[in-house]
From TrEMBL:
<dbReference type="InterPro" id="IPR023561">
    <property type="entry name" value="Carbonic_anhydrase_a-class"/>
</dbReference>
<dbReference type="GO" id="GO:0006730">
    <property type="term" value="P:one-carbon metabolic process"/>
</dbReference>
<dbReference type="GO" id="GO:0008270">
    <property type="term" value="F:zinc ion binding"/>
</dbReference>
<dbReference type="GO" id="GO:0004089">
    <property type="term" value="F:carbonate dehydratase activity"/>
</dbReference>
<feature type="domain" description="Alpha-carbonic anhydrase">
    <location>
        <begin position="1"/>
        <end position="200"/>
    </location>
</feature>
<dbReference type="InterPro" id="IPR041891">
    <property type="entry name" value="Alpha_CA_prokaryot-like"/>
</dbReference>
<dbReference type="InterPro" id="IPR036398">
    <property type="entry name" value="CA_dom_sf"/>
</dbReference>
<protein>
    <recommendedName>
        <fullName>Alpha-carbonic anhydrase domain-containing protein</fullName>
    </recommendedName>
</protein>
<dbReference type="InterPro" id="IPR001148">
    <property type="entry name" value="CA_dom"/>
</dbReference>
<dbReference type="Pfam" id="PF00194">
    <property type="entry name" value="Carb_anhydrase"/>
</dbReference>
Amino acid sequence: MPAQAQVARNNNGNLLQIHLGSAPGTLVHKGNTVQVDWSAGPKSRLVLDGNSYKALQLHFHAGSDHRVNGHQFPLEMHIVHQSVTDPTQLAVVGVLFEVSTHMNPFLTQFFPLLPQHPSGKMPPIKQLRGKLLGIHRGHQFYRYSGSLTAGSFSENVEWVVLSTPQPISHEQLNTYLRLFPKSSARDTQPLHGRVVTLVEL
């Protein structure tokens, strides 16, 4: 979250709708992270305050850009969406990962395809199933307006961050860190009057 965020509750589930379907994916080595170009399927949707967005890609940051109660997580995934009516408007679903004894079923679909070395070939993902993330009604998300956390750091980005971290095994985390050992996290930023809202699906 932005630095020293004060969280307000809003239990109006109509403010947020998320559905991630299935679609092929393309792995792209970006130098400091791996990106998966992925549409999440024709029935996928992200709706914020009545505005619809479609998935473009997902990528990772190690450690996490967002912190909860000051705690930084070892890995964070960003699912980047673009407005269907205004391509300059983006929305990002953030998923935090915490080390567990359990493999993450979503990551299991493509982490084994990552090359042993940065110059290695990245094969296509035949089908990436969003439902394996396990996002469902009752989950809570932190919501705020901000900017991208890398590249241009452009504004006009709506953030939706899953409040409950997802499991990732030591093996899966090490698979990623072997390729990208350096931290790509952005420092927490001042609020500048922004409000972080806790929203339930």
